[in-house]
Amino acid sequence: MMRVGELAKATGISVSALRHYDEVGLLVPCERSDAGYRLYSPEDVQRLFRVRALRRLGFGLDQTAAVLDGEARGLGALVADQLAQVAAVELQPVGFPLGG
Hints:
By secondary structure, the chain is mainly alpha-helical. It has one domain (2-94): Multidrug-efflux Transporter Regulator, Chain: A, Domain 2 (Orthogonal Bundle). It is 57% helix and 7% strand. The protein contains 5 helices and 3 strands; from the N terminus they run βααββααα. The protein has a 3-stranded antiparallel beta sheet. β2 (31-32) and β3 form a beta hairpin. α3 (42-56) packs across α4. The chain starts with a strand and ends in a 9-residue tail after the last helix.
């Protein structure tokens, strides 16, 4: 088990971000110590890495939670949609046409 500070140090994700993820239900630690410290299991850490990957792809917190909780359609389709949106935003200011 890792405490929140240890997890933050190991992953480079701030303690405040981890606390926020807990508050919104995105990454709820598997238990708390007697002193109230958040304790994270290896499964929690795996979920955090999935959260991080989806956030880097531009997914919002709600979308990320839906994907990880199995409430969203297929991950491949969501990633393809997200990449298309990112490409549209990146190419638009350059003047490239967005349609065929």
